[in-house]
Fold:
Amino acid sequence: MNPVNYLYLAALLFTIGAAGVLIRRNAIVVFMCIELMLNACNLAFVVFARMHGNLDGQIIAFFTMVVAAAEVVVGLAIIVSIFRTRHTASVDDASLMKL
Amino acid sequence: MSSVASVHSLWTVAADMPGRIPAPHIEYAQLAPTLIVLGAAVVGVLIEAFLPRRSRYYAQLLLSVVALAAAFAAVIGLAAGGFGSAKAHIAAMGAIAVDGPALFLQGTILLVSLIAVFTFAERRLDPAAHGNRVDSFAAQAAAVPGGKAEQAAVKAGFTTTEVFPIVLFAIGGMLVFPAANDLLTLFIALEVFSLPLYILCALARRQRLLSQESAVKYFLLGAFSSAFLLFGVALLYGYAGTVTYSGIAEVISDGAKQIDPALAGTMGNDVLLLIGSALVVMGLLFKVGAVPFHMWTPDVYQGAPTPVTGFMAAATKVAAFGALLRLLYVVLPGLRWDWRPVMWGVAILTMLGGAIVAITQTDIKRMLAYSSIAHAGFILAGVIATSENGISSVLFYLGAYSFVTLGAFAVVTLVRDAGGEATQLSKWAGLGRRSPLVAAVFAIFLLAFAGIPLTSGFTGKFAVFKAAAESGAGWLVVVGVLSSAIAAFFYIRVIVLMFFNEPKAEGPTVAVPSPLTTTAIAFGVVVTLVLGLAPQYFLHLAGQASVFIR
Structure:
């Protein structure tokens, strides 16, 4: 099968993730959408590695996974701490500072 | 068919006969600044685990200061050894560049961080809680603000000494960021310095709600932008088949065919190049805080603990502009006719947007945040110059600006009322009558921001605009001077407010800091005046450091 189709899939997943970040309200869901964007990047890396016939892209995908895991640790810690303070994880409610 | 089979054999045959993987060659001495800082961060985590609570603060402070000073000495040693000019080369198997701009920016970041750590460690500003001296960080970050757990933590005299290793990790990432010589290292360094900053933002002792809100906003937007950067990296990898800067630059200038005819079918797709480089530049512009990617800046600067804000505003900007310079000058010079017009637009929007919106601000931290956006625009004018003068002027501007910012935010930590720092601009009225010295120092910083002659701000702005004008960006310079004039209005307004208004009866008081913050502010003043009065040596230094290795 033509690997280029997987590139379209990666672009589609990335777009779905980006749209989700912009329209969803729950911080956890927004965060999941960001993870979806990172995974779309991984898919693109692997497809390009297959197309070019070198392994750089596959190695980078591993690095991205580790970074995504580290981001989950930090992100969930911050979101949980604000949830315990405000009893909501809605990004619209976090609006003490404006303009 | 055969080419696909040979390509596929790369990872199917390898399972039968595991080839010998050569051990990578790492130049530890040339990476010493980064390694020292990251090593100290790891030791700092161990200190948190094993030392009793009462001695952690002193151990952490000593460790951080010694590590940063040692790393700075290592940078000086490398520069003196000629790695900034003649011996500049690419270390760590092509991942890290050791050259003039990298060493200059690393030295700046380390010096700024050293001063910032002083302000982190300040313990005399907040009134003592239950007889314990406290700093500007939460007693226990995990405790709900105002809850029982927090009260108990405050009573027990807990302090978040974890900030020292956290900030060391961030500094380690910042040291790698402007020196990164492939896109993977760029991305990893970005995350290594961003993730600790997200945590630091959430740790304020006072106004935890604002602090946590700023951390959530910074985290979600920062992760969003780094996802864009990563997708850009993926597309550039698709374009060039490699992520090293020189490799991509070669494919851009020579075209894919000359490099490897077998891969001409998959490499060199210009759509990938244009979209990919746009996305990567977007990720970097977010970190820089350029319009239209600036929306996080005011909220994060306002909500974060003020020492952290000062550190972020100074060091992050240096690191991010370093990476942006290297990307545009080493990877994408062949594409400059495409990115220059775009960066023109971004620079104009950033200068005008930052300066105009800053006028309406009523909070001193938000005002400084918008002012930092405007300054990002001025620096972008130097980036656009695409000349050696452009590089050296940006390096000089970054050095001058970071110390002014750090000093200004350190002064903000001093002005306090019952609720902590009095950041409302109206409360600063008449400050010059009450404490002339602090107000005068702040006035010097504001004048430097405004770019008044005899301060470092003027020298920096002059250098940047001169480089931009020489490269034919005359209109950009006109807009820059115009927005400097707008910006000067709100800086001078604060000076007028401090010196020519009657102090209010319920106004804030100025806390007497320990020698730590005093050192930080004094250093800021000295650098501001020296770079304004006798900039020649430092301009020369930046000029010598202005050649990238590729």
